[in-house]
Design a protein that fits this description.
Distance between the termini: 34 Å
Shape: globular
Strand content: 5-15%
CATH topology of the largest domain: Preprotein translocase SecY subunit
Structural class: mainly alpha
Oligomer: single chain
Number of helices: 19
């Protein structure tokens, strides 16, 4: 405890770090306040149907990423998801379109251009999603004059539609701006941090609900609740191993003498992560698994045993297919995130080589072979984490609390917290303070190389 208090004092004594933390907390507060500001013309007392819809399925996933703003009919209802979608599209373009590949290699100038294109694409995607959200909201609320009272005092008019669409687009852009400001002047990755805050805001309610249910006569008592907490901590430790697990590939650089200085001649390591795809395979797989539910909703065929098997979140067939999809999408997204040919080419240009492997094509084949070997256990582990909430629910844990045992919620929480703590620790070490831990150093997801 004494060391913890001393660490807090060290953090507070660094003026730049103190300002960054306070700046981050201020912008997070603005974001959370905005999540409760309801769209003009919507009665906040009649949002029960929308809130029920935001507790499960695809809408539940969107509600989780928006921090509850989706079910609150907030000005931030669409959250940061349109920006994430635009970023994924741009990454796919980089993989298949030479123009974007060239832009990625242009350094800082290319990065600025890609960011600008991503922002414009975010506006376009939000422009499509905003009318869909309003249509869904009006359907859930019944579009009655008691639930939605637009400016002309009668049924929802074009003024209500136009103002709501503009506000939703502006809300998403404002959230995106908040994330960029946190990344630039605060602590941690702003976009990821806002998503994490939205997820963690639901933890106290879920924890309290589970505590109350366990204290009931059929709940198992306090001992059962303590066992659940211990299991949760064990799962968190395993997820940390998944997030931080790397295979370090040694790279030797040839010695170069420029003037009176010597460059190269040292061995470095390329850390290839066991889970290079992050949380994206689970998000993709969840989107695919929601197709049967959507099909049943449009067709009205809710009695088909085939479709019902894929709509039971706790069922065997649903989780089996979900498991397989996560494994497949992990391979797919890893292929997008890591390009062995590009890595081999960059290594060759900089005079680096892997000991015992010829530069060029042989190096690319070696990297691809290593990548395929570590992706298999990583994808299986990730798929197990994805279906853990369904397994936990079989033991009587409520749905809201079970989400924190795996899936997107836990992966995002662990990854973002590690990244943020790593940045704080780097500020401490730069000023000759001890790190956050007594031994070792915190490693985030973005660390690229470690010298021998």
């Amino acid at each position: 405890m004494k060391r913890f208090i001393q660490t807090i004092k060290n953090i507070w004594s660094i003026e730049d770090l103190r300002k960054r933390i306070l700046y981050t907390l201020g912008l997070v507060l603005v974001y959370r306040i905005g999540c409760y500001i309801v769209l003009p013309g919507v009665d906040p007392t009649q949002l029960q149907n929308l809130q029920n819809q935001g507790s499960e399925g695809l809408m539940g996933l969107l509600n989780m990423f928006s921090g509850g703003a989706f079910s609150n009919a907030s000005i931030f209802a669409l959250g940061i998801m349109p920006y994430i979608t635009a970023s994924i599209v741009i990454q796919l373009f980089v993989m298949v379109i030479p123009y974007f590949q060239k832009m990625q290699r242009d350094g800082e100038n290319g990065r600025r251009k890609m960011n600008q294109i991503t922002r414009l694409l975010t506006v376009a995607i939000t422009g499509f999603q905003a009318p869909a959200y309003i249509t869904n909201m009006m359907y859930q609320l019944g579009a009655s004059s008691t639930a939605i009272y637009p400016f002309d005092g009668s049924s929802p008019s074009w003024t209500f539609w136009a103002s709501s669409i503009i506000i939703l687009i502006a809300g998403t852009l404002f959230v995106m701006w908040l994330g960029e400001r946190i990344t630039e002047k605060g602590v941690g990755n702003g976009i990821s941090l806002l998503i994490m805050i939205g997820i963690i805001a639901r933890l106290p309610f879920a924890l309290f609900g589970e505590f109350v249910s366990r204290l009931s006569e059929a709940g198992g008592g306090l001992v059962m609740f303590l066992i659940e907490i211990i299991v949760l901590l064990a799962v968190i430790l395993l997820v940390i191993l998944l997030v931080q697990g790397t295979r370090r590939i040694p790279v030797q650089y040839a010695k170069r003498i420029v003037g009176n200085k010597q460059y190269g001649g040292v061995r470095q390591y390329i850390p290839i992560k066991v889970n290079a795809a992050g949380v994206m395979p689970i998000i993709f797989a969840q989107a695919i698994m929601f197709i049967p539910i959507t099909f049943m909703g449009f067709s009205g065929n809710s009695d088909s045993k085939f479709w019902l098997a894929f709509t039971d979140f706790n069922g065997f067939w649903y989780n089996l297919v979900f498991f397989i999809l996560v494994v497949l999408f992990t391979y797919f997204y890893t292929a997008i995130a890591i390009n062995p040919n590009q890595m081999a080419e960059d290594m060759k240009k900089n005079g680096g080589f892997i000991p015992g492997v010829k530069p060029g094509k042989k190096t690319a084949e070696y990297l691809e072979n290593i990548l395929s070997k570590i992706t298999l256990p990583g994808s299986i582990f990730l798929a197990i984490v994805a279906i853990l909430p369904a397994i936990i629910r079989l033991f009587g844990v409520n749905t809201q609390f079970a989400q924190f045992y795996g899936g997107t919620s836990l992966l995002i929480l662990v990854g973002v917290i590690l990244d943020t703590l790593q940045q704080i620790e780097s500020h401490l070490l730069m000023r000759h303070y001890d790190g956050l831990t007594k031994t070792g150093r915190i490693k985030g997801r973005t660390s690229m190389s470690v010298q021998a």
